[in-house]
Structure formats: C-alpha cells, structure tokens
Amino acid sequence: MVVGIVIGVVCGAGAALMVVVPIVLYKYTSCCSTCKKRRKDHEAQKNITLATPPQEFFIPSEKVSVQPGVVAMQSQTPLGSSKPDLRCLAQSRHSLGPTGEADRRSITSESSVGGSFESDIGAVQPELYARTNEVLVRNSGVEKPDTTAKKKGKRGRLHVKLKYDFNTSDFVVKLLEAENLPAMDFGGTSDPYVKLSLEPDPERKIKQSNVQRKTLNPTFNESFKFPMTFEETHDKTLRMNVYDFDKFSRHDAIGEVTIPLADVDVSREVNVWSDLEDPQARQGSLGDLLFSISYLPTAERLTVVIMKARNLKTMDISGSADPFVKVTLIQGGKRFKKKKTTVRKNTCNPVWNEAIIFNVPASSLKSSSLEMIVVDYDLLGQSGKMGSVVIGPECTGLGKTHWNDMSQSLRKPVAMWHTLQD
User: Fold this and answer.
1) Would you say 137 and 145 are in contact if contact means Cβ atoms under 8 Å apart?
2) The domain 284-419: what is its CATH number?
3) What confidence tens digit (pLDDT) does each residue in 347-372 have?
C-alpha cells in the first residue's frame, strides 16, 4: 500500500515548496509471496502425511524380539508421544484383508506353538493350569445317576466335590446331593442326612449335614473343611454315612460311601458320584490285610512289613474301630515270638507301614510260619479279634503261595493282599 506525505520546504526566497514523498506501508494481515508459498507447501505436506497409508501390518507366527535400532512397524506418532496414531492402526487393519474378519481372527487368536499360544503378556501354556469339574464315577460305568436304581435293589447315589485348598491348608468336601435313595418311612419318603469323617483320625472328628425333610433326592450344598497338610491326605479315607432321621426312634442307616483319597487327585477340584453301599452287606466280610515278607540269609532275618488293611468290620458304636495287628512267629507248631503294631484310632481302613523283624535260622525257615491277627483295641474291656491270616510252607492257597514266592526271591520283599478269616 502506497501513501503520500506532503512536506513543506521554505526556500531562501521566502517561497514555499511543497514536496510529495511516497512511502510504502505493508498491511499486518497480508503476506508476501514467499510466506504464501511456504503455507501452501505446509498444507500440502500435511495432506500427504494423512493420506499416505503406513507399511503393511505384519502378524508374526512366532515370538519376535525387537533389537535396538530395528524398526518393527512404522508409525506416524510424533517423537516423544506415547499414544499411537489410531488412524494409522485403523488403516493397517483394513490393509490386511478385504473383509477384515479373517484379520481380526489372526489378531485375536494367537498362533499355537507346541500346545501354547502367544499373547501380549507372553506365552500361555494351558496344561500348567489346574482343570476343574472333572467327573469321577465310582462303582458304576455311567456318569449320570441310574433312574432304575430302585428296581435293581441299589441304595442310591451320592454326589460330592473334593478339593484341597492350598491357601488355607484344608481338605474341602462339598456335599452336593443324593439321588434315588430308598424310602425308609411309611409315607414312602425319607429324612436323609450325612455324617462325614476322615480315617484314620485319633480325635474322631465327625461332621454332619442338615436334615432334608421328606425327599428321596435331597440337595445339600454344604461344605466341610478338614485341616491337614496335603501330604496327609494320601493316607486318609473319606467315609460318608447316609441316615434317615427319626425323631422318636433310632436313626436308620441308608447307605455308606468310602473314598480312599490316594485314588483321587484332590490337588484340583473333582466331581465324584458314588453308589451307596448297604452297611449291612459288609458285616459278612472281615476285610483284607496287605503285608510283605522278606528273608535275608546272611543275617538270618525274617522281616514282615504290615502295610494297611481295608474294609474292616465295625467294632464301635460310632461305626468304626481301633485296629492293630499282632504278629506271631510259629516254629514246629509252637508259638515262638509275638510282636504287634501300633493302634490306629477310629478307622476301618488303617495304614501302618511298620516293620517287624524276627531272627530265624536258615535251617528253621522251612518249619516256620507266620500268623497275623487284626485286633480292635479296647481301653476298658477286652480287645476283640477282627480276623486273622496264616502263611507258611504247610498252609494252602494264597498263604502257601506267598511264602514260596518269598523263599524263591530272597532279599526282596513280596507283598500280597490277604482276606481275613475268623
């Protein structure tokens, strides 16, 4: 913009001379041609930056370790900014495929390598995680309860969940339900409840559920905790007795279930369906005894290891027993020496793992035999005999077989189960 300024000059003759001086002024809001060109270049560069797609987004099938100085994926994120450019990510997602559906699957479902899969937090191996809801069916070949149990003379079925809680050091039994129980009342129903105990248990702790009124398919949903270490569960047996409650008379036994915890992996939660057994059916059987024998010729030593017993008959009012084993060495038909194990309190499935040693000369081995008597300990009265086993070269059946196997495998212990006899 050009303006003129009139300046008066006084000459020497006294005349005045008017001079117009042109001055060029620039408006503040206007730009020169150089500035306009720079602005146009800046806008053009900005449009190019937004329109230019990033390089192809690559999903590796295996782990990719990014080394310093190596660019894994280009980004339009300014330096010093921690937030990614969402427009670039959206463009890269659409550049993977025409529909984007397969691309989303490739992003969300990582590649499987050797049973594990990759994710943003590293390699995940499912086999290292505990599995739950495993179903274990005992005394039956089907998972669901048999609806024809009454017709077959069965006594129903009990459903529990077993798990060891490592956080609280408790063995937890969740009593869920029972199905197809026999009717114990005149009205064609029952009032069932359950008593739970772990054997062996010197303190005789028995836990009891609530009574479910007038039903043959009770639902309990009760949890019971038994404090112990995880190693102690291996030698325990869970016993559950189902009774019919009667207010005016003795409660009737409906059935019972025994679950050796050594047969169940309680480190994870396991569903167990078990057929109820008639408590009277076991009275005809005296149970079984497991023991091993071995002979060391150089030391002339006969070793008997009393390991455990199962399904012993009940001897106490509480429906249990306090068993121990009395071992007798017989030579020439005469009782030569007697030794016994410790007493296992309140259990019909005791575990001993105790060794008893006799000095027997090699010349007397052929005329020797062993007698094992399982006895129920009674503090006040006389201890009662629960059953016995005799093995030796003069015996018959399994008693002779066990002794001959030991004689043919010197220095090696030979273990066998024996059924107790009167």
Assistant:
1) no
2) 2.60.40.150
3) 888 999 999 999 999 999 999 999 99
